[in-house]
Amino acid sequence: MKAIELYRNNDHIILVTAVKFKDLKNIVKFTQRTSSNWSDNNDESSKFYQRQTNEIRVENIKKYISSTIFENNESEILFPSSMILSINSDYNEFKKDEFNVIDFELPTAKESCLIVDGQHRMKAMFSLYKELEGQFFAEEKLIKVLNYKFNCTILVDYDIWEQAKIFANVNFNQKPVDRSLYYDIFGEIPKFGKDEKLGDLYVAHELGKFLNLSSKSPLKGFVRNFNSGKGFISQAFLTQQILRLLGPRSGWNDIVEDFKKNDDERLDLHKKLPKVFVAYFSTLKKEFSEYWPKSIDKSQATILTKTTSLGAFLRLLGRINELFKLGLFPNYDKMDLKDLSLEKLEEIFNNIFKPFDHTTTSGKELSAKYFGQESKYKGGGSMGLQSQLFKELAKEIGIPA
Fold first, then answer.
1. pLDDT digits (tens, 9 = 90+) for 270-291
2. pLDDT of residue 107
3. How far is it, in rounded angstroms, from Cα 121 to Cα 240?
């Protein structure tokens, strides 16, 4: 196979060529992430950066391909960009001539070619191919599909991190992209010798995914993502709030600094964070049970599920942690919350939120003040309202904001 060489250094090569569907269909690998590294369903898919394909989009692309090559009888199917693939060099030498043209061989092993960008169009072609396979007298159409050439950019010897950065650059530079997607891509890949400044993002991203996916989490299903429209808050919002708790002046910055260390020096402090959040939100769910959503359906949204409330409570947790680490939390000795057991954390949080005790009249009245029908926080949210609620909640539990 011939290709034009666009770039080469000691470790990487980028090629541009056209590849027939029949040469790709048995070697491409579709990838998607389905779990957090901290979730109950951790598997190999957590190392990939692709989101789940959108079946509606796949079907629309399939119709476009079919109408172009069959109904309009055109040989060229125009896509706005080339498909980006990734392969290993293996035994290819990739020698080029004076015109930068290279002779090389595609790998032949199953799933040896990763799709970096273009999974939807490839799935659409697969869908069309399988549909035609089940039809009588469709041989000519099958031949057209098998011989269709995808315009491809091929990355040679790029690792997962480098592929993710290229995927993000392609999508971000072409059009505006939801900030949640940025967090999702770069939060998915730990540093491992790469960009250390993203260490805090990885920790925040993994914790956010755990809170939204784990059956242990009271916030399971609260985060809207690109695979489901259900939920109350965006992934970008939750990630930004957690990032604030991991910042240089926060009580949990030691977790980020530990994560940046080499494997043999790291204490994996980030793995202690989930139990703190589980214990904290379990207490909130119990004490504010009257206002906690009964399901993740949007119709069940309450003041507690708004960004104003959740942002204030996350900020409050950060403040609680800071005071404990400094030995300034009223009636408690100096301690690090992440070093405590889940049972001890629940005991502490239950005691902290006693003013809101749902079994007492005063507790119910106090909860109604902030989260009931007459609450001044029932309207639209803003950073100002979030800050105001944080300060009022801090005052109610007896700590400085």
1. 899 999 999 999 999 999 999 9
2. 87
3. 33
Say whether pTM exceeds 0.70: no
Length of the chain: 401
Q: Are 334 and 343 in contact (CB under 8 A)?
A: no
Q: Are 45 and 33 in contact (CB under 8 A)?
A: yes
| Residues 6+ away with beta carbon under 8 Å from 256 | 199, 200, 203, 246
What tokens does 119 get? 């999974």
How far apart are the C-alpha atoms of 183 and 173, rounded to whole Å?
16
Separation of CA 154 from chain center: 25
Q: What is the pLDDT of residue 138?
A: 87
Closest-CA residue to 307 (of 355, 238, 249): 238
Q: Is residue 152 a contact partner of residue 48, using CB atoms and an 8 Å limit? A: no
The per-residue pLDDT for 351 is 97
Dist CA 273 CA 270 (whole Å): 6
Eight-class DSSP state of 96 = B
Residue type, 145: V
Q: How far, in Å, CA of 153 to CA of 352, rounded?
A: 57
Give mean pLDDT, residues 290-307: 90
Q: How many CA atoms lie within 13 A of 83 on its CB side?
A: 25
For the stretch 191-194, contacts whose Cβ atoms lie closer than 8 Å and that sit 24 or more positions apart, written own/partner, are 191/259, 191/260, 192/161, 194/161
Residues contacting 326, CB < 8 A, separation 6+: 334
Q: Residue 37 pLDDT > 70, yes or no?
A: no
With cut-offs at 50, 70 and 90, classify the pLDDT of residue 127: very high
For the sheet with 83-87, list strands across it: 28-29, 113-117, 83-87, 149-156, 13-20, 2-8, 101-103
How confident is the model over 209-218, as pLDDT tens digits?
899 989 999 9
Mean pLDDT of 201-209: 85
Amino acid at 385: L
